[in-house]
Structures are given as C-alpha cells and as structure tokens.
Amino acid sequence: MGELRLAIVPVGLIHSCTPAFVTPVPGLDPGIDPGVHRIKVFMRRRWIAGSSPAMTTRIVAPKRTKHALAIAISICALLTPAPLTAKTLVFCSEGSPENFYPGINTTGTSLDANSQIYSRIVDFERGGTTKPTRDFNADDVMFSLERQWKESHPFFKVTSSNHSYFNDMGLPTLLKSVEKLDDYAIRITLNQAEAPFLSDLAMEFAGIQSKEYADLMLKAGTPEKIDQEPIGTGPFYLVQYQKDAIVRYRAFADYWGGKAQIDDLVFSITPDASVRWAKLQKGECHIMPYPNPADIEAMRKDPNIQILEQPGLNIGYLAYNTTKKPFDAVRVRKALNMAINKKAIIDAVYLSTGIAAKNPIPPSMWSYNDDIKDEPFDPVAAKKLLAEAGYSNGFQTDLWAMPVQRPYNPNARRIAELMQADLAKIGVKAEIKSFEWGEYRKRAQNGEHMMAQLGWTGDNGDPDNFLHTLLGCDAAKTNGSNIAKFCYAPFEELVMKAKATSDQAQRTELYRKAQIIFKEQAPWFTIAHAVQIKPVRKEVVNFKLSPFGRHTFYGVDIRP
To answer: Where is the domain boundary, 205, 234, 263?
Structure first.
C-alpha cells in the first residue's frame, strides 16, 4: 500500500493574504511506491477585525514529484462592497449549472459555475478563499472526501449519491483510509499504487467545502443548502443564481493571490450559439463558448473580436451499449463503424473546427497511438459483416442525440440525422431520441440506450482520465460515465497496470496496447476531436484557454 500525508506547517505572520513560496521539484509521482509521501502546506496568518484568523496555505509538490501541483487557500472576509467604478465581466454561458456541488457534476457547464467558488486539495495553478467562523483545516478536507466515499456519511445522499468521478476512478476501493493527524495534517493510505492520484485530486470533484457550514445546515434541517448556497475556496463567491437566466459572482477582496482584476462576474445563460454571438457583437457579453462553426469566419473578420484557439483535449463519440443485443457482438459494432461516413459528418457539422478521431484519446495527449488505422467507410463491407453476424436483414435500434451543443460536438441532432441515413443503407433502422440534458445523461449512465452520442473533455492531462474513467470496469457500473458499459478483461488489465507504475515509458506502452484493443473491440464510433475556439471581445485582457476546457476568470481584466 502507499500513503500520502498532507501536512500544513506554520511559518509565521504577515499582514495580508499573500501566497507562500512554491518550489517545483523533480522526481516521482506520490502514491506510486509504498511509504509516506509528504505534501507540505506553508501557512501564514493575520487577524481581520471582527472575524476569525485569516490563513493562507499553499500545498507544494513534495520531493520526488514530477511537477509542482499547488493550491493556496486563505480564509478572509466573505462579503466586500463593490467599488463605485466596478468592473463587470459577462460570460455568455451555454447553460444552467445543475447545482453547486462539484462532487457530483461531470458537465463543463456545471464545472465552470463551480470552479469560480471552490479550490481543490491539490491544484494545477491557482487557489482560493473561504470564510466560516474558523480557519480552514483538515476537517474540511476530510468532510469533502468522506461525503463522496462513505455511504453512512450524513451528506452522502444529499443532492445526489452519484459521485461520478469518485466512483468512475475507482476511489471507493482505492482508498484504504483517510486519517486526520491533527488540525493541519491528514494521511491518505491507498490499497495499491496509483500513478495519477495527485492529478486526480486536482480535478473539480475534489473541491473543498466547509464542514462547519455543513454541520450548521444539517442541524437546521436544510443540508441541501450547502450545495445550493455554497461557501467555497475560490477567488469569487456566489451572489445570485436564477436558473436559465443568470449566475452572479463577486470577487473576494482578500483572496490569497490578491483580489481579482474584475469586481463582478456574470454568467448570462444563453443556450443558443447564434444568440451568444449576437450578444458578443453588441458588447452584451465579453466571452462566449462553443460558437457555431458556420459563424467563425464572420467572427474572424469582426475588428472588435479576437479568436483564441488551440487543439482540444476532447473526444466526441457514439457509444454502443455492449450489454444489449445486437451490440454485444463485436462484428455488429464494427459493421456500423464502417457504415457511417465520418468525413461527411466532419465536413458538414464541424467544418474547420474538428479532426477525425480514431482513438479514444486526443492526438495531443502523451501515449497516443498514431499507428492505429481507422475503419474505412465501406458500406458494402459493412453490410457483409452484418450478415456474417446474423443480421442480413438489418435490425431496429435507437440513436440518442444530445439536446445541447458541447465542446466536442457542435450539433448532435444533425450528426444523428447523417448517421441515421448511412445506417439505413445497410438495413439498420435507427430512431433518433433525445431528452432534456440532465435526463439524457442520467438515462445514458443507467444504460437505457442502444446507441448514444456523448463526449469528454480531459480533466487532468493523464490518459487514465479517458481510458479508465470512460472505458474501465469501475465506470461501467450503473450511473457510471462508461455508457458503452464496456468491461473487457484484456483492456482492463492494461489500464490497471498503467495506473500502478510511475514510469511514463511503461505507461505509454501499456496505453498504446490498450488503444489497439479498443479499436479491435469497437465499443464506440469515434467521431472527432474538436478544436477549442473562444471568441473574446478585444477589451478583455489576459483570458487564457484552459487545456481542460474550463472557463476561469481570476487574472482576467477589462480595458476601459
């Protein structure tokens, strides 16, 4: 087994919420080898009149880690009046967050709304603030982990018991124990080595919530308020939420890294991409996600708009439910893969914003196996293979299309129509179905579909986040993110071996082999990797594209 000890070490007093030093150090990932691996958290305090001590902490990657993963957490004033010349940034969000509990959310829409409020136990770059009546301490970390892990926990079922990330990554069985050593140290003991463990803790599901606040809400008989009226550790706090209309945040004046450049942050909920574009042109919002590919040429010509773009760490796909006939047969799945014209879909729907996908991970990710050949578009061979599988006359099936635009799929309905037409040519009659977005995901995770479109944007830069989280046996269980319900022992063995070593060359080889098996078994029709494109008004300064598709606004400014 391996242990990971998080220690918070006092180093003195200062007069403002400034971060402690962070020093990257080379070495191996924690959690790989048995033994105790320490993450030091340097703490600085000051008193604020009429409140509890303020505490700034920063978790520093320990000696023998490959990269510095850090967070800074400070407890400062919660409510601060906006200045008379307040700067307001408006983000034309594509949808409403389902709630403000990061432990159960998997959609970018909800994660974006949560990301402004919470910090993680470990973070890739930036941290945040919270203000109950006491300092942030180990109790908050314990609470945030245990409410997702222990079914007996009073908050396990609050809002939802489907802790998708926690379960899909196998954390319920990976964790042996999480112990509080003192107010500023915890020890995590794993049942086996886990290479991506620290990277996993930097994901949104690990956002820290206040145990004190939770206890108060539980005592008041309103435990759900912790996820509806959140107190978190990010640079902004929630002021107002009106479903399908607006999410309003305000900056913490005493955030550990300094107050945000903007004073107010508004998510103007605008599901229609054409309407988002119209608002951006008029200056009614400053940043918009997920433009219609057909609008991008006009956006490039607008003198008031700048286009930020980079390869997307994503995948759009059609999942076959491998537990239901006829999709339990590999030949049927491969036949349909050959029957669908992928190039026509990309040309018609993605235009210049996507590249054909042949693997379940994007080309920019380490371990990508470019030697793999995609199935050819060959309806004649597809019909022949279908006959060999016992379906010479074809069959009837459903074909689910997402009701919303996603970063990996600009128009699922149109893609479904193109697929439907292609499948009809080999005798497969597909009925297109859709549901409200939350219902769609819930039903797909329950395995109610035969075929369903979905996709994924990476969370931590590790192939495990795709190959195990989306295709592993843990995630194939009811409510898991593996909606193909694909649980194949040879694939699982390779992915699990790759988790257990810190040698990236070994992990790369194992993942390359896993991609070969994926292609042979064909649990998905891989559609495309979408280019990440963000139209931004030119008065916006220092907005940065996240490789994980998140939209974060600390550090962003607006020119007068």
So the answer is: 234
